[in-house]
Write a structure and sequence with these properties.
The chain is mainly alpha-helical. It contains 4 helices and 2 strands, in the order H-E-E-H-H-H. The protein has one domain.
């Protein structure tokens, strides 16, 4: 399940980063923050998720990457509720929708990485 999460969310987050770079610094649908710094972060985190989802067979590494990115997203979402532009990193502030998306992706990543049981390894021909 962790590798599937990496594939789906990784590709989605990379696409969000690409669309953000193409749109420039504005808001998407008037509700989502789009800044170059955030787009680059989306490209990096989405790329890491996609990498462990597609290219790696090491489920331990996949769990570690997905879980770590999940923690980062939860922290960004939680901190941004208190301070919409944490550390002044972005030209525009995070919206409530941005924060909810970050929190949701983070909680899901943590659940997938660390709370779901690992798949049992079975060999062919075993009953």
């Amino acid at each position: 399940m962790v590798r599937e999460y990496g594939r789906v969310v990784g590709v989605t987050v990379v696409l969000i980063g690409v669309v953000g770079l193409l749109l420039g610094q504005k808001s998407l649908f008037g509700a989502l923050n789009i800044d170059i710094a955030e787009d680059v972060i989306h490209l990096v985190t989405g790329g890491l998720l996609a990498y462990v989802g597609f290219a790696r067979r090491d489920d331990g590494l996949a769990r570690a990457v997905v879980g770590a990115i999940g923690v980062v997203y939860v922290l960004v979402g939680a901190i941004s509720f208190a301070e919409p532009n944490p550390l002044g990193l972005f030209p525009s502030e995070y919206s409530v929708l941005d924060n909810l998306i970050h929190l949701t992706l983070g909680v899901l990543a943590i659940a997938v990485a660390w709370l779901l049981p690992r798949r049992s390894q079975t060999t062919a021909g075993t009953t």
